[in-house]
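pasting for the record
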Amino acid sequence: MLDTRNRVRLSVLLCVSLVAAFVDELDDSFMETRGADDIWLIKFYAPWCTFCKQLDPVWHQIGSELKSLGSPVNVGKSDATANTGLAKEFKVRGYPSILMLKKGVKYNYSGPRTKDGIMDFAHRVGGPLVRTLTSLQLFQHAMNSRDVMFVYVGATSQLKGNYTSAAEQLIVHTYFFSAARDILPKAVSLPSLPAVVVFKDGTFFTYNEEHDGDLKSWINRERFPNYFKIDSYTLYAMGESGKLVVLALVEERNLCEESLRYKSLVEKVAADHREIYSRSFYFGFMEGGDYISGLVMGEVIVPSFVVVNLSNDGYFLPTGAVETEHHLMDFLNGVLDGSIQCQGGNGVVQRARRFVYETKVTLMSVFSQAPLLGCFLVGFPLAMATVFCYLCRKARSTISDDDDDDVAPSAPPLQSYKKLTDKKSE
């Protein structure tokens, strides 16, 4: 029995050591010792960071899986509090920070801290900048596995150079492909070549420089589906697109009839009126209202509608009930023409208010889960402030007493000077 337990323990320790072997611990000498063509996926952490500790087993799984797949991506981690030079080189601002270094170019990962999300980032950024589709089967496979796909069609041109330049900066967000005209399905009709095409929402759209402006900006605007489920990470990333986001806020599970109606209403407007609203809005639904409650600094009713401007932390709320498709369109038209005012924002006053609100919510959560810790977090700063005020008051009293002692001896010389003057006058 004892031997069996020992064998199990030994097996577990062996597995842990093998998994850990696929993740290198990096120090400040990394930039000098790395190979010029090496590709590295790096996690910067702090020993005291709870989120870093939660990510650690996932990180070792990622290192093991990438190695087993034969990926060229090396996986490492670095204690940013000990290796400050390396952390400064990568401009680490928070923990955990996930970055990729590829041929001297640094790419930041801002998605969810999940294995699937990070693995997709590693495959996307670690692979070719623009992937060539050489058959219709590869094209169909790429389309089936992605909600949004950008494809360059045609020979070498200035447009292809612009496409490649955009890919260098936006590869952290989406995949980029190229293909010959005969690789695309026959149903895809292109007015001219070369062309950049985006496939999404069951259809496709061709880039038009005169109508759509800068190619990179167009790709950045079109890299999300027109209607889909949105989480806090995705919503934050949408702020870079310049579009507003129309949200139906619904329950996290067991959706009521009203929530289902709100979802279908947003989806219908997104699909039926794409030509009117697609340049200005994304559409989707979000489960739960915690993120939006933090944005509006108040409790959000679920289900409900809200339009969010992530570029300035602003939001728009309907002025009346939204019961029909016509009501929702009136709401969106009011947002566009300015008749419905934007609330919130990221001004100094709004930031201060949001800080106070988030502090209050955090303390309430701490008090509900750990009352003693909450009392300490509130009581300790108050006690320190009280002691500081007492010491300042005592110091001022001491200075005042010293000033009185310095002034008192000056009286006798004045009196002596007066007597001397009187004697001279006599």
